[in-house]
Amino acid sequence: MQRRLKDYLIISFKGLAMGAADAVPGVSGGTIAFISGIYEELISTISNIKPALFKTLFNKGFKSFWQEANGNFVLALLSGVIISYVSFMKMAKFLLENEPVLIWSFFFGLIIASIYFVGKQITKWNIPVFIALIIGTGIAFYVSILPTMATNDNDYFLFIAGAIAICAMILPGISGSFILIVLGAYKTLSDAIHDVDLKKIIIFICGAVIGLLSFSHVLKWLFKHYHNITLALLTGFIFGSLNKVWPWKKTLTWHTDSKGVTSPLLQESVSPLAFEGNNQLVIAIILIVLGFLTIFILEKVGSKKQ
């Protein structure tokens, strides 16, 4: 695929959007990749990283290796994801602590629009497709109500958490950051990034790389052999995640870590009218609409021929 500099800049902006989404516990960067039209290329590119690719490097040189690895695409996308994820993680933490209703409202609108745009790519509806949709919805909803584990900063655990979370990050509808929270590794990683703890960051990245390379092969095979069923499953994941991003929640139990920092352990969705405190309903509705419209813009950009 022949691309110009402008095309790679657009891919980098999509990476920025993916990174920002993944930094918020409850939103998946995979959803952004899907809507913006780069999801299947991303999965295919990742799954092509195998021993044969490195044989190309030694036998045919770096140029052939770079082309076969879709290097320009990877560099453009990854640079956007990393810059956005690291920078937006601090902002997301601030917004979640100080303006949770507003940030969740924006992403709720984003997810609603995503359901339509992912679902419309299913070309044929039949019983297996409907079953896949229901299963995907059930799995994502169940994940959204899981209680948070206590924080764990063990190196081996962080490696495993990275492998699991990265699989969620590339699945539309299932948030990698939320999986880290459920596993009790989100604060450990956030602190490592804040304190520039290279050891923990490298351990997490190693786990993520291994998980990503393994899981991408599974996804590529599913898209090749069961395209509509896979799309229905992913649509279900997005639909089931709505419970997690519902803006108005009631905290049932709290968790206090070793440093005395208190955070919600178990929450349930409630009506805006039953919300304790300022429900910010008017601003929330405006942000839901803005989130909804954002997906339309991303889909329009993604539908253009690169």
Helix proportion range: over 70%
Taking all Cα atoms into account, the compactness measure Rg is 19 Å
- Average of pLDDT: 81
Gross morphology is globular
- The number of E-state strands comes to 2
Distance separating the two termini: 8 Å
Unreliable stretches (pLDDT < 50, length at least 5) are none
User: β content, as a range?
Assistant: 5-15%
Class from secondary-structure proportions = mainly alpha
Largest sheet: 2 strands, antiparallel
Count of helix runs? 15
Number of domains: 1
Helix-strand pattern, N to C? HHHHHHHHHHHHHHEEH
Going across the biggest sheet, name each strand in turn: 1-2
Explain this structure.
With 306 residues, the protein is mostly helical. The chain has one domain (5-303). The protein is built from 15 helices and 2 strands. The chain has helices spanning 5-23, 29-35, 39-47, 51-60, 62-68, 71-98, 100-119, 127-144, 155-169, 176-183, 186-194, 198-225, 227-240, 242-245, 281-303, and strands spanning 249-256, 262-269. It has a two-stranded antiparallel ribbon. A hairpin with a 5-residue loop joins β1 (249-256) and β2 (262-269). The N and C termini lie close together (8 Å).
